[in-house]
Amino acid sequence: PAQFPFSYRLQSQLAALDVEASISGKDVDPSKMSGAWQAWCKAHLGEATWTAADRLKDPLTQWHLGYLHDVVHSGLAPRIVNVSAAEQLRLHTLILGRRCPEALQSPPGIHWALSHYQATLVALAGALSLLPQNLQVQCLAAAESSKTSPEGSLLTSIEEGLWESLKQMRSKREGGPGQSGSEAAGGVLAAALLRATNDLQEALVAALPGRLLGLRCAAASIFVGSCSVAVLDTLRAACQNPKNIDFKALRETFKWKPTSLVAVLRTLAQDEVARPSTLAVVAETMKDSTLSGPIVRALVAIIADHEATALVLTTATKVQLVQHVLAFVEDVEKLPLIRKETKIPDSLPKTLEEVRIVAALRESVFDEVAYLVQRPLQSDSEPPRRNSALQSIKHPGVAALGLRFAYQCTGLAGLAELFLLPKEELAWLQIDTTNQVRKQVQEARSSAAIVDTFDILMGKSYHEQRKKLGKTDVEKPKDGFSKEDSVLTTTGLTAVFAYGLKLDTEQKGRLGEEAAPPGYEAARKFLALPSFWTGQYPGKAPPGEEDTFDEGGTLAISAQASDLALLAPSCLQAQLRWMRALPGAGPYGCRGDGASRRRPNPEMSKDPVAVHGLFSLTFRLVGVAGRRQNSYLGKAFASPAQMKSFFLPAMAWDETQAIFEAMRAERVTWYRCPNGHLYSIGECGGPVQSTKCTHPGCNRTIGGVDHRPAQGNSRLGTFYEMEADKRSSTPGYNQCLEPHQFSQYNHQLSRGRLSTMSTESVCFQRLILHLAMLAGAETRRSLDLDTVGRLTSAEIWSRVQKDFLALKNALEWNSVEVVLALHIALIKLDSLLERNNGVSDSPDKAAHFETLVHEEIVRPTFLGTFSRKEVAAKLKDHQTSTLEALLKKQLGTERWEQITLDAAEAKEWDLAEVPDSDALWLLRPRASVDSLKQCFERRGGECQRLPLLQAFLQQEERLPLIGLMADVLAWQKLVTKVLGAEPITREEAAKRTNQDILDALPKEEKAAGVEVLKKFCTAFNQVMPKLTNLFECQKNPFLTDDGRVDLSGTAGGRGDKAPANVMGTTTPLHFTLPSHPPGPLADAPGLCTIQILNYLVRSHNEVCQQLMEVSRSIALRTSDEASESQNAGVAIAAVGTSAANAEEEAALALGAETPHDIIRQRLLTYSREQDFLPLLHEFSTGASQWGSAQGTDYDMYGLEAAIASRMLVGKRPLALQIRHYLYAGEARSRGTLAALQGVLPQVALLPGSLAEAVRQTLDTREQVIRFLGLLEEAMRFLVAVGTGPTKTNGEVGGKQLLSTYLQDVAMVDAQRLEAGLPSLIAQQAALDHLRALFLAAEAKLSGDSSAGSAEEHQLLPSVVATYRSALSKETAAMMSTACDKCPELASIMPVLRDLLTGALSDQSASFPGSESLREFLVYEDSDLERETWFVQHFPPDLRLEHALETFRLLVSRFSEQG
């Protein structure tokens, strides 16, 4: 219950005001403000009431302890968990009574004190909350009895109690089973202790230095490991004197717990007094060779965080220490690229600057190599050279590092990319290359290069056979050759064939060239040597038995070789016959007029891979046809005449089916002429006219009349009718046999009820069949295939190309992949033909064979989910092996092994044996946010056990912006200080700039002001792009289409790259001053700063909330469930419980008046470089593994615990108080004028004397603006308090003089009051005249004729023209009569003015002028429709378009009456 009269009323009134700024002024002295505070209470409670209440002061101290009691118990003071209201009241009385006793003598003073000392009270209460209640009472009693600083004595008592609490918890833990919860309880206490200490640092408590240092060390030790009672005693004794820490005792205590030692040393290094000695101990500890990598990295982080690396480098005797420092600098610092004048250290770096030079040089190597291997190469001209300082460096370590990075980080392809660059760009890498090497590398790495498919598919034996072709001659056996000596195999013959293709490819000119390159012919000469047939090639032919060619180009081999060839299997003999019959050199430049002339079509001529691939596929196909002579392929190759006797796969089995298929989409009906020739009729399908058949030599009548066919013509039907009623099926090759039908060739084929073939299946089966037919024609040297009508070999070759291209387009693969897949499919087809030869005597059997081909060959090879990946993998393996052999040859074996050392070998390196000159140029895994996210994703389901880390990574990109809130508030504070108490108009704010604020500063403050503005501009320009909508769903007008800031206001339609108008020194002040009047987006500039601050505080609170929720969920789990590491689980659970407790407390308030340092400390300020990257380096398990760039991983549980204990502890939600700027003359737009009537009833019209005073005494614009400022201040106070003044000096309510209220309540300076309030108005104007005075002054400012101006058009100039129409004489007379009869109509003037300056001043308003003005007045003030005088006397015929002139008439009529 309240102990003070009117307590809650005063609390609500004072809480609604900014007591410090509005009542007390700026630099507050409580002793000087006591009288002003007393006057304020007297004015609001009344003299008698306040006199009675004032007697309730504490008689001894004269403090209003009853009111302080009510404030603390009601929750207006910050609430702290685990501290009762009674103890909080004692704490408040103790601190405020010692700090500002005068403030406790009145309620406003108490509010000021609570606001001013909030941080101190919260910090001390938080520290007190760590103790049990009985100890809290003892600590407060001790502090109350102490004559020294209350903070110091209180902290001393708290420290004693905390040591005892920790020891009790550890004793329970050591007491045996059943005490598992004490570990987590100790962690919770440790987290709360860290939070309380942080709060004390925020509050700038003078008694803090040296306090709680041992406790902080104990908390840090608890977070990372168990902490026994003995350890606690050691810590307390060792840290008793910060200037003389007993490090020997600490190292002995934590000998077997290096993690705890590191945590203690890190805590000690944060203390200014203990820091120097602590850093020296850290540097000495790093020399211990038995320490693990993570421990050394943590020690390096401590050293580097305090810029003390010189302690390590100057005494380093091992390269490993330098490597650790170098690794930290590389992972954490942002390094510039080197310059040409940079000097590389000759020995191990001895200073941090030298380490940074090495790190920058390494970074430059990585950057340069990444640029070189990723930039696009152009065939016509070399790309522009990059201006790199590395070009002038000749250092073996740098060169080795560049090559290692290119290989291990960008792969073999990246390393190969370097060999394609100009020689001068590779000097620093010590690579010597030639044009020939570049050409070989380019061909080896090209995805569109011609590849040897036989090498890919046939394996090692084929590769060995290929090698023999380049060997020296083999001596002929003395006894000659015999038939039994023949070892000719498919592998050997294929090697000769592919070797010839390779030579032909290398030596060919342009594709389609007539001259025959010698490559293929040279390879074919092996076929003439007996030594080849015995497997001893490439021996020379005996004299007189050299190979010869006949006039047609056919190879004539020696007699002995010919005899040996007869022993070859049938497949080889077929291939030999085909090769011998070819008159040209491979697939290119075929000469002569024979059947083998393969001219690529225009599309294929641009694709040598496809031409070469089809030629090699023919060779394999001929082997299959020779082996499977009874198959349909064997017959198509050797006996095409037999194809007429069986049904071929993928062929139309009706001679007309192909035509029907081609036109199935057309709405036509098919007919035959008397001679059997096909023709079609469209539309309804019935003949309506006659003509002659156009088939050569026919000329018979076709068509008919009246939908009846002419004599001899027969109707076949539509495609679907014929499909349902098959009349005949014809075996053989029935695919467009006549020349005039060749253009109709396509790959659409339907089997109806039998089967349906996919395009891929049709293309593959026809391609194989056509190649077999073409190879047979080439072998027999026959120009035409008589068995298939007029189909020539040239047409078959054309169809081969069409089949290939159709298959390629259907698959959307590249040519290399299609060629290799065709070879694979042909091997599978060879196996299938052993079971089913494909010779089908019925359509059903043929359809069955087609299905087998599709399911066993086409689907798995071409259409499977991983088909393309499998083909691409084979190609990549082949290209890699070829490229690797080439690069190894160029670099040399020793150097190749040096740069290709894999991660497994690197881990086994003994770095002590590595020369110092090489140790700093090895690769190592880099710790980065990207690598962490990749590792986190790889963990998969384990991520669910790391919720805090997962939440942190989700918010990480957003965190750096939160700290910018302090920069925005700092500029707000500076601008408010410069502008002072006199408000400026919105027009002035649009003209004055940020530079004007700087110019108004005193000379000694300008430099600091420039820095504040610079930071504000950075914050504004970084956060503004995040606000896509500036207010609710309204698009931000200050962002371009591509998201750039443009404050010109024309950004909505801009997407160009023109320089945007961003926040800077020339930006108008109205973008800085926060202002948000109700209504449309008329004050968009004023919303910018408001929304930026709202976005930042919302981000802070959302992040805190999310992290608290995650931490609370961890706190509810057992330590075994929380983590693989019990210590990590304890730390996170502790911070989680602490965060859960913090959530129950009141949010801390921030505003522009809050000290800048406190704002920064309370915010979740975050920098990736300063906060997160050091943690990543420390918890990266591979950061110290030099020798390979692979193997980056992280101790996720340790990292999560470190984030909780080092970055998030003590952070909690904030309440931001944004003070909107009240522009001069805009009280109505802020809602104050409308709300004033509800707080204090206002008169409708000014008395005549006051109206005359306004007209006569306010002579200048400056006077009017000052007068409006005073009126606005009085109205704002009345509305904020929510009630009018009670009886004071005989004046009741609204009859109190305005001047008295401004002086005694609003605390307006007397000089300002005298300058702004004319004496006549000061003597007569009461509070109930406020609204009428404001309207009159505003009209005076705008030049209203009713206020003395003759320019009618200037009355309320913002009103839209639609609502400014003149009244007719009849309407004006009717309105004047109503005013004479009903004086109450004067009451609608404020309502009508609100309507005019609000909705009717919106330039986007679309209200029709014909709408009823009465209805809109009721919308503005719903009480009017219940007033009888309004319903009876306000003319219903007035329209919205008459609104302004109606207002003018009302003002004129009632001013005359007044």
Quick description:
By secondary structure, the chain is mainly alpha-helical.
Structural class: mainly alpha
Largest sheet, spatial ordering of strands: 4-3-8
Main sheet: strands, sense, barrel: 3 strands, antiparallel
Give the tally of β-strands. 12
Number of helices: 66
Q: Work out the oligomeric state of the chains in this entry.
A: single chain
Mean pLDDT: 76
Helix share bin: 40-55%
Instruction: Give me the Rg, rounded.
Output: 48 Å
Distance between the termini: 52 Å
Instruction: Give the overall silhouette.
Output: flat
Proportion of strand residues? under 5%
As residue ranges, the low-confidence spans are 19-26, 176-182, 377-382, 471-487, 507-518, 535-556, 589-596, 903-912, 1117-1127, 1344-1353
Structure, explained:
The structure is a single chain. Helix 29 (570-581) crosses helix 30. Strand 1 and strand 2 form a beta hairpin. The chain has 1458 residues and is mainly α. Helix content is 54%, strand content 3%. The protein contains 66 helices and twelve strands. It has a three-stranded antiparallel sheet with strand order 4-3-8. It has a three-stranded antiparallel sheet with strand order 5-6-7, with no helix packed on it.
Note the topology:
Elements: H1 7-15, H2 19-23, H3 30-45, H4 47-54, H5 65-74, H6 85-99, H7 107-116, H8 118-128, H9 133-145, H10 150-174, H11 181-202, H12 213-224, H13 229-238, H14 247-253, H15 258-269, H16 275-285, H17 293-305, H18 310-313, H19 319-332, H20 352-374, H21 396-418, H22 435-445, H23 453-458, H24 460-468, H25 490-507, H26 518-524, H27 530-533, E1 548-549, E2 555-556, H28 559-565, H29 570-581, H30 608-627, H31 632-638, H32 657-662, E3 669-672, E4 678-681, E5 690-692, E6 701-705, E7 708-709, E8 714-717, H33 719-724, H34 759-780, H35 793-811, H36 815-835, H37 843-863, H38 867-891, H39 893-899, H40 903-907, H41 916-919, H42 929-938, H43 947-955, H44 959-962, H45 965-979, H46 986-991, H47 994-999, H48 1003-1023, E9 1029-1031, E10 1034-1035, H49 1084-1115, H50 1119-1122, H51 1126-1144, E11 1148-1151, H52 1156-1162, H53 1168-1178, H54 1196-1208, E12 1214-1217, H55 1232-1239, H56 1248-1257, H57 1261-1281, H58 1298-1304, H59 1310-1316, H60 1319-1324, H61 1330-1342, H62 1369-1381, H63 1388-1397, H64 1413-1420, H65 1428-1433, H66 1443-1457
Parallel strand pairs: 11-12
Antiparallel strand pairs: 1-2, 3-4, 3-8, 5-6, 6-7, 9-10
Helix pairs in contact: 3-4, 5-6, 6-9, 8-11, 9-10, 10-11, 11-12, 11-51, 12-13, 12-15, 13-14, 15-17, 16-17, 17-19, 17-53, 19-20, 19-53, 20-21, 21-38, 22-38, 24-25, 25-26, 29-30, 29-34, 30-31, 30-34, 30-36, 31-34, 34-35, 34-37, 36-37, 36-38, 38-39, 43-49, 45-48, 49-51, 51-54, 53-54, 55-57, 56-61, ...
